[in-house]
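@channel sequence for tomorrow's demo:
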Amino acid sequence: NLELAILTEIMRGGADKVKEAGAVIAGGHTVTDQEPKYGLAVTGLIHPDRMFTKGGTRLGDAIVLTKPLGTGTITTALKRRQADEADVAKCVESMSRLNRDAARVASGVGVKGATDITGFGLLGHAHEVAHLSGVALRLRWESLPWLPGALKYGEQWIFPGGAERNEKYFGQWVTFADSLADWQRMLLFDPQTSGGLFIAVPSLDLQRLLDAMESSGQACWVIGEAVSGDAGRVEVI
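structure tokens (generated this afternoon):
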């Protein structure tokens, strides 16, 4: 079936992606479960002068995202056999793409504040950044990038259980524009697998970052900014 074929493709390409990232696979174990699973845990070292931190965002910084959103709703649609094959292919392509090039560009521009968007969804990780940086964040719905099919499946309320758990916990720190529908709000809590980087860059360096991203062939979107307000608050307009 389609789900098994996709997993097989990911497993076959996994070793190549690990090699591309400059890492090696060491050890492993098998889990017996109803669903086939494949995952990796990363262990390594980093130079202290090349670190990004969640607490590195400053007032006035622009927020840049380097991958479109929607992997959670698309893969859930796949599990329910409601996903279009073309949408799944684009989702797998996005999840398989490394954040290495985006990280190198950000580091070259001198970015210090960044994280990756994974299981807590866009808003969960945005709250972490805002809380640890002592700022509030304002994000713009119309600026957010989406994988093909994500908005369609979201409107059909096809979400993994993690989206509701994220909303239940992180929702206390989030305010939304009245114009946003419930499904649009829930999409922002959608857990992501291998999401992009959530980068905070000083406004004076923003154009330099965007130009460097374009030169390297790395897509990115300016989705908001760090603003004054209660630390940890996230506003979606």
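heads up for whoever presents: Strands lie at 62-65, 113-116, 136-139, 174-176, 197-201, 221-227, 234-236.
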